[in-house]
Amino acid sequence: MTRSQWHEHDWQLIHTAPQAPALHMALDEVMTEEVAAGRRAPTLRVWEWASPAVVIGRFQSLRNEVDSAAAKRHGIEVVRRISGGGAMFIEPGNTITYSIYAPLSLVEGLSFQEAYALMDAWVIAALGDLGIKAWYQPLNDITSEAGKIAGAAQARRGSTVLHHVTMAYDIDAAKMLDVLRIGREKLSDKGTASAAKRVDPLRSQTGLPREAVIARMMDTFHARHGLHFDHIRPHELEQASTLAHNKFASDAWTAEVP
């Protein structure tokens, strides 16, 4: 099969009201399956968060990654996503998260590294328009001279690839270190200041409101690949709500990897 090009697909944009962390996890699974089944065109979904969360990768150990007592103390929900990769620390208004549900043909024949680079190219261009010299850092980071900006993860289901990215717009480094064990270990001898440097927020690099950064991203995607506004359909939301309740909000799923 020959690899398809971005412009050959009719890209849809979903950007709706804030939603709960478990529902976001469920929507990723439902949307991926809808695109794979041909019931939905390839879609870019920009997330808005209703509450703080730590999102751990599909194969990560909950106990190794998260200080559950600290998460509870801060009122942070811990959820597990369907893709691999590392833990993400989320606070509403402080992150920019998006998912791309793309036909597998878009990354046909590419290595994982090449697939990540391809899927991140448009957002690196958008950051360039905002004056940030950013680049793809294998395997799954977007970084700049000031530090890491974003982390990506992928999952492949049937004929679809899910690619999602969380970008740091602003960050409470002290709280992040309190909740994430891995960050604490990496930075214990360097102090909190270097945590803020390692994950450098877009706010400090652009001086722009979060909404303006998102708007530039959408404009760039539209200019490069085409983009039309869409919405979450009732049956998708219904499926996702059931899945969020039965799977993604359950202790059994979240703590699946000991």
Give the termini distance in whole angstroms.
40 Å
- Number of helical stretches of at least 4 residues: 11
Q: Specify the overall morphology.
A: globular
What name is given to the CATH topology? BirA Bifunctional Protein, domain 2
Compute the CA-based radius of gyration: 17 Å
Low-confidence stretches: 187-193
Number of domains: 1
Give the rounded overall mean pLDDT: 93
Strand order of the largest sheet: 7-8-9-10-6-2-1-11
- Name the helicity range: 40-55%
> What is the CATH architecture term?
2-Layer Sandwich
Q: Tell me the strand percentage band.
A: 15-25%
- Number of separate strands: 11
Would you mind describing this structure in some detail?
The chain has 258 residues and is of the alpha/beta class. It has a single domain, classed as 2-Layer Sandwich (BirA Bifunctional Protein, domain 2), CATH 3.30.930.10. It has eleven helices and eleven strands. The chain has helices at 21-36, 62-65, 68-73, 112-129, 173-179, 181-187, 192-198, 202-206, 210-225, 234-248, 251-254, and strands at residues 12-15, 43-47, 53-56, 77-80, 88-90, 95-103, 134-137, 141-144, 147-157, 160-168, 228-229. Strands 7-8-9-10-6-2-1-11 form an eight-stranded mixed beta sheet, sandwiched between helices. The chain has a three-stranded mixed beta sheet with strand order 4-3-5. The radius of gyration is 17 Å and the shape is globular.
How are the SSEs placed, and which strands pair?
Layout (H helix, E strand, L loop, with lengths): L11 E4 L5 H16 L6 E5 L5 E4 L5 H4 L2 H6 L3 E4 L7 E3 L4 E9 L8 H18 L4 E4 L3 E4 L2 E11 L2 E9 L4 H7 L1 H7 L4 H7 L3 H5 L3 H16 L2 E2 L4 H15 L2 H4 L4
Parallel strand pairs: 1-2, 1-11, 3-4
Antiparallel strand pairs: 2-6, 3-5, 6-10, 7-8, 8-9, 9-10
Helix pairs in contact: 1-10, 4-9, 5-6
